[in-house]
């Protein structure tokens, strides 16, 4: 293996681990207002990070969707073990974060493909260290963009969701979880179909728009429901 190939592999390996840790930090920030103490939110974040990193470095390869489902399931288990109140709310938080994480990462991945078109340019491909340097920039921008979108999304939801200490009933759980489940279903359809599409660039633009709309739909549903709930209480 040449030095540039070794650097390429190490950069890819480290960038994925950093991205997993960043997602775990966002999860801790997301669930912190709903937990009894910040330390418990830190435990949820740590559990998610550890499980995801172990699943990434372990030899058996599993599908990404299954891996992240296991990660969020571990986070939910820690939330439930630390605080067994309001279980439906914790399920809602898990589903919502699972959806937001995929939507934000998928938006960043679509932007990466346009960046890959630059890396595949014959003039750049001939200069391997320049190509590697651009790849490092691509990975940094990918982590920053996906983390920013994810962090902004969870911040907006935490701000919009006013009844953090209020019990979440079945009706509220179903209403608020549907947009997140819709986002996950949309990503799954894209995940299994992306390699069969002939108009890849147009399809990527449509999917990017869908992911953005799905995130906004989650936020809008929470805002409307909270306003309706406040009006009902008044």
What does this structure look like?
With 234 residues, the protein is mainly alpha-helical. The chain has one domain. Helix 1 runs parallel beside helix 6, helix 4 runs antiparallel to helix 6 and helix 4 runs parallel beside helix 7. It is globular. It starts with a helix and ends with a helix.
Q: Can you give the mean pLDDT?
A: 80
In terms of structural class, how would the helical and strand content be classed? mainly alpha
Strand content: under 5%
Secondary-structure element string: HHHHHHHH
Largest sheet, in brief, is: none
Task: Enumerate the spans where pLDDT stays under 50 for 5 or more consecutive residues.
Answer: none
End-to-end CA span: 69 Å
Domain count: 1
**Helix residue percentage:** over 70%
Number of strands: 0
Could you provide a short overview of the structure?
This protein has eight helices and no strands.
Key terms:
234 residues, globular, 8 helices, single chain, mainly alpha
SSE map:
Layout: H1 3-31, H2 38-57, H3 64-82, H4 87-119, H5 122-125, H6 128-160, H7 170-193, H8 200-233
Helix pairs in contact: 1-2, 1-4, 1-6, 2-3, 3-4, 4-6, 4-7, 4-8, 6-8, 7-8
């Amino acid at each position: 293996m040449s030095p540039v190939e070794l650097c390429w592999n190490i950069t890819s390996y480290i960038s994925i681990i950093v991205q997993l840790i960043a997602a775990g930090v966002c999860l801790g920030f997301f669930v912190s207002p709903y937990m009894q103490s910040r330390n418990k939110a830190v435990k949820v974040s740590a559990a998610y990070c550890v499980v995801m990193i172990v699943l990434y470095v372990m030899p058996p390869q599993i599908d990404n969707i299954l891996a992240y489902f296991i990660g969020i399931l571990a986070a939910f288990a820690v939330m439930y073990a630390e605080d067994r109140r309001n279980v439906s709310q914790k399920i809602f938080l898990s589903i919502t974060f699972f959806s937001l994480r995929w939507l934000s990462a998928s938006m960043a991945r679509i932007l990466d493909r346009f960046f890959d078109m630059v890396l595949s340019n014959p003039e750049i491909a001939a200069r391997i260290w320049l190509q590697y340097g651009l790849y490092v920039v691509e990975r940094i921008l990918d982590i920053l963009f996906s983390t920013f979108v994810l962090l902004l999304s969870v911040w907006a939801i935490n701000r919009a969701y006013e009844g953090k200490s209020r019990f979440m009933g079945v009706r509220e759980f179903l209403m608020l979880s549907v947009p997140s489940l819709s986002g996950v279903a949309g990503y799954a359809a894209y995940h299994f179909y992306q390699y069969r599409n002939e108009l890849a660039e147009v399809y990527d633009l449509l999917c990017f728009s869908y992911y953005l709309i799905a995130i906004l739909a989650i936020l809008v549903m929470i805002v409307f429901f909270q306003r309706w709930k406040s009006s009902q209480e008044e």
